[in-house]
Amino acid sequence: MKQTSIFMLFFLLFASCSQRQETITLPWTVSTSEGSNSQFDLSEIQQAGELIGVTLIGPDTYYGYQGRHLGAHYLLGEQFASELGVKLRMETCRDTSELRERLTAGDADIIIMALDTTNNKTPGWVVGPEKPLLEEALNNWYKPDMLAQARLQEKQLLSRPRVQRRVYAPMLSHQVISRYDGLFRLYGRRIGWDWRLLAAQCYQESTFDPEAQSWAGAKGLMQIMPATADHLGLPRDEITNPEKNIEAATRLLKELEGELSFVHNYFERQNLALASYNGGLQHIRDAMRLAERDGRNPQVWSDVKEYVLRLSDPKYYRDSLVQSGYMRGKETAEYVDQIRLRYMKYKQSVR
Question: Are 321 and 286 in contact (CB under 8 A)?
């Protein structure tokens, strides 16, 4: 009997623990139950150090240009995040349904684009459910003229000269293009490019000014962005070093050529690599896919260029084939053509 009583006592204790197990939350365990994100309000966002926004790609919301992100709502979102003392992490969705799904699931804090047109206190953004303190902070911070000011800020950025540089003559003499000809010859041979084409690209980028800097942060002769320098292993404090800048740029061109190795014509592959250097490889691939869909040749720059220009039209940048969305393509289209024109002049004058 004594053994039976001990066994029954052990069984009851075990059953009791089993019943309570579901309600025990260990201090190092992250709950995954429904509504676990409902308490993630302003103080938790500030503690995490980032505000997670979701949006759709577009000219007024969020897009990439010359190595940085723009869009009036994005710029305003950065200001709001700064007001909260955190960084803005912007993520993109396919459509408005996905925006709301992400918000409801607690995967984002706020929709940063005009969806709620009934609320005059905000720029039309929608705050996640059960985040009253975040919503209150937004309502207290936002003033009706802020979105217009953000649009003006973007317009001023885009109207500024892309690169602040000194103006150099196109050629130093009849047989000398620039003081960096030796470097163009050296690194041009390494990647199999005519050094005069590299010189033409450098003139387009910086007019041979090693101290040139763009408003987006690109630096040096070949206008290398800091993030690109990191990718290429070029120390940021050496970006303006003429030789290191040119060497890194040629490695990037070779890398882009490799990504476009399926383009059989060498001339066209170079054009597409130059376009990718300026506008981003993913945007160029979007234009190539659209060209192929419409029966054009996706391996010929003149055909692809038309779609680079069309990627500023919602009909095209919202197409299901497009992965990188809106693009300000005019500069990229002119970039390649102007380099080719200058290259032809250099070829006629310099050997």
Answer: yes
* CA 351/CA 55 separation, integer angstroms: 52
Q: What share of the chain is helix, strand, coil (3-state, %, to 5)?
A: 55, 10, 40
Alpha carbon 332 to chain centroid, angstroms: 16
Cα separation of 221 and 130, whole Å?
51
* Residue 18 reports pLDDT greater than 70: no
Name the least confident of 64-78, 180-194, 306-320.
64-78
- Write out the H or E segment, with its range, that includes residue 64: strand 63-65
Q: Do residues 41 and 47 make contact, with C-beta atoms less than 8 angstroms apart? A: no
pLDDT for res 193: 98
Residue type, 279: G
226: pLDDT strictly greater than 70:
yes
Q: φ and ψ at 117, to 5 degrees?
A: -80, -5
Residues acting as catalytic residues? 205
Span 90-124, pLDDT tens digits: 999 989 999 999 999 999 999 999 987 776 668 89
The answer to whether the CB of 204 falls within 8 A of the CB of 338 is: yes
Give the pLDDT of residue 125.
94
Distance of CA 345 to the CA centre of its chain: 35
More confident residue, 58 or 24: 58
β-bridge partners, 110: 53, 127
* Alpha carbons 192 and 116: distance in angstroms, whole number: 55
3-state secondary structure of 169: coil
Side chain identity, residue 141? W
Q: Is the dihedral of CA 163, 284, 252, 236 positive or negative?
A: positive
Alpha carbons 106 and 95: distance in angstroms, whole number = 17
